[in-house]
Design brief:
Helix content is about 35%, strand content about 30%. It is an alpha/beta fold and about 130 residues long. The chain has one domain: Ribonuclease H-like superfamily/Ribonuclease H (Nucleotidyltransferase, domain 5, 2-Layer Sandwich), CATH 3.30.420.10. Strands 3-2-1-4-5 form a five-stranded mixed beta sheet, with helices on one face. Strand 2 (about 15-20) and strand 3 form a beta hairpin. Helix 1 packs parallel to helix 3 (about 90-105).
Length: about 130
Amino acid sequence: MEHVLYSDGNAKRISWTIKTDSNVVDQSREHAEIFLDQVTDLQSKYVALHVGLFWSIGVFIVKNGDTVRIMLDSDEMISHLSGNMQSQDRFAESRKGFINQLAEQRNLKLEYEKIIPQDNISTKML
């Protein structure tokens, strides 16, 4: 099955939207205290993607072997996540490791696609 995952974040909140066929689920959370006002907006986007993917697996929306099209409004994240490029940001590098680990454990096919910020439907929940 194919899913489309949008995510976004800032210093205080993270949000994500998972679309499957005609079903759309929106979620948002305040950052865990360890991250609240401690991460950059870009780092928060990594947290939102990681948590959104993990949550989607946990509530059985995304299942083993599924394809997840990940919509990103950050060129830096596209370059970092879609290839072997390493980030100078250790925080972003560790999130990439967690995301790749989830994909490997669940045999997920992750496809990264660039969108413009105005098309990120998760931003409205921040």
